[in-house]
Design brief:
By secondary structure, the chain is an alpha+beta fold. It is 18% helix and 31% strand.
Length: 90
């Protein structure tokens, strides 16, 4: 997938630091990308997990070169799971 006019490709050189932590008082991992320009992007655990699932699926399947996950509400979800999930598109 190519980046469009309103999309940004974050180059590795633009990432100054990555901090993965479970903040005090929380149960789930947060991952913060601190960028060279001083800004930061923090991802919740579910988002990082979805990225990892997609990465592994594409990298380990010799016939697959893309995976799309789209966000949607899942009303009948398992206990402890968020209502909003990133799910694979068929």
């Amino acid at each position: 997938m190519e980046a469009g006019a309103d999309e940004r490709v974050l180059r590795n050189e633009e990432v100054a630091e990555i901090v993965a932590e479970i903040p005090e008082g929380h149960r789930h991992l947060r991952t913060t990308l601190r960028l060279a320009d001083g800004s930061a992007i923090t991802l919740q655990e579910a988002t990082v997990a979805a990225i990892v699932r997609a990465y592994v699926a594409v990298k380990t399947d010799p016939l697959r070169n893309e995976m799309t996950l789209k966000g949607r509400r899942v009303p009948g979800r398992k206990e402890g799971y968020a209502e909003w999930q990133l799910m694979e598109e068929p």
